[in-house]
Automatic annotation (TrEMBL):
InterPro entries: NAC-dom (IPR003441), NAC_dom_sf (IPR036093). Gene3D superfamilies: NAC domain. The keyword Transcription applies. Residues 29-200 form the NAC domain. This is NAC domain-containing protein 10-like. The keyword Lyase does not apply. PROSITE patterns: NAC. Residues 1-30 are annotated as: Disordered. Keywords: DNA-binding, Nucleus, Transcription, Transcription regulation.
């Protein structure tokens, strides 16, 4: 009985360590058509509806934790939805630490996504004075971002990460609330964002 219990525990631990498999998009579109949305379309037609629980009648997005995969391995598992080999994902971000709202960017122990430059404001296509979201640009690096053996090697992988303006304001409010209450929430879950991943070749 003891041996059977040990085997069962080992199998359970192995199952828990396996990365989440990409969830196949329910609708991939029509033959001959390429998915090539503008930034405001990604916010209004997809991300806003996703986070508000509204059914997406046309949904080409994969759903997966992108931080469990090197982008090369992730894109090998998924067909590109966009033209010129572009992949789109819904992913749930987790906090770097329980006392903050900054997202964890490490991909295992051997890589990480690093934000580059300032966030780009995404404006509504009808009312240009209205900001509906932000786009953050990130590069993928191989190696370690911190620690004694810190090392990083840049790669050709790039990502655009999209947030709605409501998500941005919510993060600011959470920071202020934690400053006032001085307590950490139990959940490490941060939010759901939309990610566009592509490989920027030197010749491009």
């Amino acid at each position: 009985m003891a041996d059977k219990q040990i085997i069962a525990n080992n199998e359970r631990q192995q199952h828990q360590r396996q990365p989440q498999q990409p969830q196949q998009p329910p609708i991939l579109g029509y033959p001959g058509l390429k998915f090539d949305p503008c930034d405001h379309e990604l916010i209004k037609n997809f991300l806003e509806k996703k986070i508000n629980g509204i059914e997406l009648r046309y949904n080409p997005m994969y759903e997966v934790n992108i931080y469990e995969y090197h982008p090369r391995d992730l894109t090998e598992r998924c067909n590109p939805q966009g033209k010129n080999d572009v992949w789109y994902f819904f992913t749930t971000r987790e906090k770097r630490n329980k006392f903050g709202v900054r997202p964890a960017r490490n991909v295992g122990d051997n890589g990480f996504w690093k934000a580059m430059g300032s966030d780009i404001k995404i404006r509504d296509d009808v009312d240009e004075n209205k900001v509906i979201g932000l786009r953050k640009s990130l590069n993928y690096f191989e190696g370690r971002q911190s620690g004694v053996d810190k090392s990083e090697t840049t790669t050709e992988w790039r990502m655009h990460e999209y947030q709605t303006i409501d998500q941005v304001e919510s993060s600011k409010a959470k920071i202020e609330e934690q400053k006032r209450n001085r307590h950490a929430p139990t959940s490490m879950r941060l939010d759901v964002v939309l990610c566009k991943i592509f490989c920027k070749k030197e010749a491009a």
